[in-house]
Amino acid sequence: MGLEQIFIAIVILLAGAKILGELFRRIKQPSLGGEILAGIILGPTLFGIIRISEGLELISTIAIFFVMLFIGLEMNLSEIRKVGKSAFIISITSLIIPFLAGYQLSIFFGLGLIESLFIGLLLSVTSVPVSAMILLELGVLKTKIGTTVMSVAVIDDIISLVILAVVLQLHASEGVSFDFEELGISVLQITVYLIGIALLSFVVYKSNHRFPHRFDHIFVKTKTREAKFGIFIIIAMILSLIADLAGLHFIIGAFFAGLIFSDKILGKKETDKTYGIMSGITFGFFAPLFFAIMGIKFSGQSLENSIPLLILLIIFGIIGKMFGGYIGTKLSKFPNIQGLAIASLLNGRGTVGLTITAVAYAIGILDIVLFSVCVAICVITTMITPVIAKPLLQKSN
């Protein structure tokens, strides 16, 4: 595919994603559903106007980087301290139960170990950006319920990305003789990287605490336009490359870069400016294209023989997440209705679910059938979440 054809494909995909994304927002649904639908309509599943190519794959990879970087940037770890112990308890219980349910169901349907582990992981995630959009649309983002859900989602995503790193390592060593030495080296590399990230975060926090305006003075002196944004992207790329060298996927580094380099290093003014630029680039260009390209890869025909698996995974995913979340809220002394509302709001798998699905498909963990099943799970559970949560929220008021 030549440059001209790539540009034409981008224009058509972006226009379709934006139109259907806007339509979905108007009917109180996350825009990513419309953006994926645009890819399904324009791709081989329906009209076949656009087909996947190396150029679109490259754009999709760059888009994953920006989406994960933005997800990290959007998270505010200080918010976790406000609900602290209860958010951690809810996160653990809401992770374990759907993970085990998805894993066992996948094994029952004859899937392999790696595929089953990934399906379990997919049913466990809660997408921070999608949760924020749902909470905002339901008018509860700033309430105790909203803060709890967002804090649980933050912890969920961090734990899920660590689990993803382990699954990727298991996949990389699949098909070769089991080597404890190689496994030990891989575990050591991952551990060193995560410890390095923790130390870097600690240094950044302490530097900002002792010298709160130190970095502001450096950034003020820069004369190049948007130099701060450029520095931020360079740091994110370096952390992504190091993550890749450590045997992790590069999106892990992008995520941690966004998580660490917020107002702690940039200062509030520069963070707000960087956030604005990132939001425009991500949601104005990369995210719609990313979801539309996923729609192109989606194969509706391949679901023909997987409908029972898809339906059961959706049911197990929703019930497992709600049940696990509800147990956590009871242990944290939340009232019954509030607990059910919080548990129901944890089912928005959206952005994070789709991103890890794209990664798993790209490296060969998922075939086209399982990829399509996973995309359908992410979209359907995300769209069902506000429908289930709204009456529970009304009763909890």
Give an overview of the whole structure.
By secondary structure, the protein is mainly alpha-helical. The protein has a single domain, classed as Na+/H+ antiporter like fold, CATH 1.20.1530.20. Helix content is 80%, strand content 0%. It is built from 16 helices and no strands. It has helices spanning 3-26, 31-42, 54-74, 80-108, 113-124, 128-138, 144-172, 180-210, 214-221, 227-245, 250-260, 263-297, 307-331, 336-344, 350-362, 368-396. α3 packs antiparallel against α15, α10 crosses α11 and α13 (307-331) runs antiparallel to α14. 48% of the residues are buried. The model has no long low-confidence stretch (mean pLDDT 82).
pLDDT below 50 for ≥5 consecutive residues: which ranges?
Answer: none
CATH topology: Na+/H+ antiporter like fold
- CATH first level: Mainly Alpha
Instruction: Give the integer mean of the pLDDT values.
Output: 82
CATH architecture: Up-down Bundle
Number of domains: 1
Element-by-element helix/strand order? HHHHHHHHHHHHHHHH
| Contiguous helical run count | 16
CA radius of gyration is 21 Å
Q: Give the amount of beta strand, in percent.
A: under 5%
Beta strands, count: 0
How much helical structure, as a percent, in the residues? over 70%
Main sheet: strands, sense, barrel: none
End-to-end distance: 55 Å
Structural class of the helices, strands and pairings?
Answer: mainly alpha
Report the principal-axis shape. Answer: globular
